[in-house]
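Sequence only, no structure available. Ideas?
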Amino acid sequence: MFVPDTVHNAPLPTVVMVNGTGLKALHYRPVFEHLASWGFVVIGNDDSNAWNGRLAVVSLEKALCQNSMENSPLYQRIDLDRIGVVGHSQGAMGAINAATEDDRFKVLYAASCPQKSLAKKLGWSYSMKTISIPTMLVAGTGWIDRHISPLGSLLHLADELPDTTPMLLGRLNGVEHRYVLHEGDAYMTAWLRCFLADDADAAAALISDNPEILNNPRWQDINIHI
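Reply:
I predicted one. Tokens follow.
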């Protein structure tokens, strides 16, 4: 758990992180610290088989309990109406499943989500068909990520979303699977700030009439539906 320092006003927007295969929360420490520096409470856990998203929901429940406990560092720090969920690789499926099951999540960021044929072979499942919250889907063009989360899969997931769901899709040029979450951190933070903090600068980067991401040479295959 990372909590912003006291210069940030409470209650605060909150992000629940869902881990990739075999990883624990502290693997993402730089991402947690970056999000906290932008005013987010960040909640993680040590679930290393997180595809179903269940422990992400449990982690949120525990955090909300602490939010009501006067002796907790989270006391009255969490804004119940501004909670997002983020996941990478297997954790991207976990984030999708958590958002599907729990309507307290208001924004979704899924990085390098395994394509459904691969997920099926591994005994995992997920669906975008009922996701109504703003959703950002990203992957890298590195060799491994092109096989785990190819462009065709991202486009299929985007097509599965309801027409009314705000969506942004894009790929990081030359970035390999294990680095996608960290390399995309800036725009991930901006996506969360857009919808959980009403940040006009973040909106200019991603969802304005001429968003910055369209002119960023590190990104390609951008598809925006707002």
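The two ends are 31 Å apart (CA to CA).
Hope that gets you unstuck.
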